[in-house]
Write the structure tokens for this entry.
Amino acid sequence: MPRGARRRPVTSRSVERRGRGIRGLVFPPDVPAHRSRAEKFDQLVLEAFSPIDERWRERLVKLDIAVDDVPKVRALSPESVTWPAEVVADGPVPLSRLVPAGVDRYGAATRARIVLFRRPLEQRAENPDDLADLIHEVLVQQVGTYLGVEPDVIDPPPSAD
């Protein structure tokens, strides 16, 4: 801009950049459409874990649930991968991992936690109902591993009466 040029005054038209409308939120924060995919996934995890927690609460007080976007664990050879019992995987892709309680690198005690991997789980579900079922199934398997019992004990199948 040359030295002698004057700046335009700020008006409502100048706030609407390039004719694209007023800037701001599309949805108010209190409507469900405002939540991100990660926030929606976190809500699904809480809903899937609540029936398990209601039944096994006294044995799960030292267990945390966490969500990561992608796994940081990789198979060295995808063709012949064998995962330990604390990893629930679909072939070479881990869907969740049970991290046992222990001590971190600073010497502080850590709690056991189940880490669910959001992106691999979302990619394997065809619709939101499938995703909720898949999350519940993975949580049942991981809680069973944590407690040392079969998944059918954690979430018994419906009886055929």
